[in-house]
Amino acid sequence: MIIRLNKSISLTDLSTHLQLDSQLLHESNDVELRGEIEANTQLNIPVNCLSIVENSDIVELVGDDIIKSELKMKKPYDSNELEKDIEKLIVMYPFIKKDIVGYSVLGKPIYQLTIGNGPKKIHMNGSFHANEWITTSVMMYWLHEYVDALGNGSTRINGHDVQSIYKDTTLSFVPMVNPDGVDLVLNGLPHDNTYEAGLLQMNDLSIDFSQWKANIRGIDLNNQYPVNWDIEKARKIPKTPAPRDYPGDAPLTEPEAIALSNLVKKQHFDRVLAFHTQGEEIYWGYLRKEPEEAEAIVREFERLSGYKAVRDIDSHAGFRDWFVHDYRKPGYTIELGNGVNPLPFDQFDEIYKKSKGIFYAGLYM
C-alpha cells in the first residue's frame, strides 16, 4: 500500500502513528528513512496498517489511479525522478523485477527493469549521452503503456498480443545509462565538489552544461567499447577529457560503460536497441558482422516509424558496434527526433508517436 505524508514528521512519530516498528518501515522502502521525513513523501507500507491510516491528517492513501496518472506523465527525468518512478512502478506492477547493474562515477545506481519470462532476450537502453536525456522520458512512457496493458489484462496493443509478448520475451530495460551526466545537464554542478573544478575547466568556465554529452569525468560512454577503439581514439579531436567525444585513455575505463558490458556478457541478449538523439535514423550494420535477420527487423522499424535505416556509418567503439561485432547478433542505434541536441521537450509527442512502434517491434520481431 502507498501512503503520502500530509506534513513533515519525524520517523519516530510516524512509526508511532502507524503503530509500526521503524525497522519494518525501513525494510518496506528502498529510500533511506531517518530524521524528519518531508511532506508529500510517498512510502510503501504493509497492508495491515490500512485501518490506521484512513482519515488521518498525517498520511493519506494513494490510490492506484493516482499513481498511474503520476507515472504516465510527459516529463524530463533526472536520476532522482527516475528512481521515484521506478519505486512506484514496482509497487503497482509486481511482475516488474528491479535490480542495479552498476553504479556511476558518483555512485548513483544504474537500474535495470526486467519484464517478461520468455526465451527471447531483448535489451533496450537510453541516455548513454547526457544531453540526450529525452530518450529516458520517451522510454519510460513506452514502458508504462506496456506494463499497464499487461497489468490490466489487455490482449492487444499497437496491433499485437501483449500477453503473448510477455510469455515469449524477456525485456531488459535500462532507461538511464549516464545518471551523473543527465543530472549535470538538467541540474547543474553536483553537490559533491570533487569534480567541480575539472568540470568548469572542461566547460570553458561556463555553468551552462546543457550541451554536455559525456559522463562526469568527461568520457564519452559510447566511445568506450573494445571494437576498433584505437581508430576512434586516434581521430577524435579532443585528446583529453571534454564535454563530448573523448573516448578515454583505454576501452572500458568508465563504470557506466563497464556496467553495460557486464550486463551483456551475463544475460546473453538476442538483440540490443540503444536509443539516442537525433536524426530519425536507425543504424544497424557493422562491418558486415550483423546476421541476416537484422535487416528484416530494421525494415519493420523503418515501416512503423518512418525513420531511415542506415547500414554503414564511419563509426567505431560504440556499444552497438561492439555487440554486433563480438556476438554476431542484431544491434540497433535509434536516433530519435530531429534538430540540435538537447532536443526541446516540446518534441516529446512527435518523437513518441513515431517511435513507439520500434519499441513494440523490438519485442515481437
Question: Care to describe what's here?
Answer:
By secondary structure, the protein is of the alpha/beta class. The chain folds into 2 domains: 2-62, no CATH class; 67-180 and 254-364, Zn peptidases (Aminopeptidase). Helices cover 38% and strands 18% of the residues. It has 14 helices and 15 strands. The strands form 4 sheets. Strands 6-7-11-8-12-15-13-14 form an 8-stranded mixed sheet, with helices on both faces. Strands 4-1-5 form a 3-stranded antiparallel sheet, with no helix packed on it. It has a two-stranded antiparallel sheet with strand order 2-3. β6 (97-103) and β7 (109-115) form a beta hairpin. α4 runs antiparallel to α5, α6 (134-151) crosses α14 (348-364) and α12 packs antiparallel against α14 (348-364). The radius of gyration is 21 Å and the shape is globular. The protein starts with a strand and ends with a helix. Its cofactor is Zn(2+). The active site is at residue 335.
Protein traits:
38% helix, 365 residues, hydrolase, carboxypeptidase activity, eight-stranded mixed beta sheet, globular, carboxypeptidase, 2 domains, 18% strand, protease, Peptidase_M14, Aminopeptidase
Instruction: Look at the helices and sheets and give the structural class.
Output: alpha/beta
Count of discrete domains:
2
Low-confidence stretches: none
Gross morphology is: globular
Q: Work out the helicity level.
A: 25-40%
Topology as H/E string? EEHHEEHEHHEEEHEEHEHHHHEEHEHEH
Radius of gyration equals 21 Å
GO molecular function, one term: carboxypeptidase activity
Enzyme class: hydrolase
Active site: 335
Cofactor: Zn(2+)
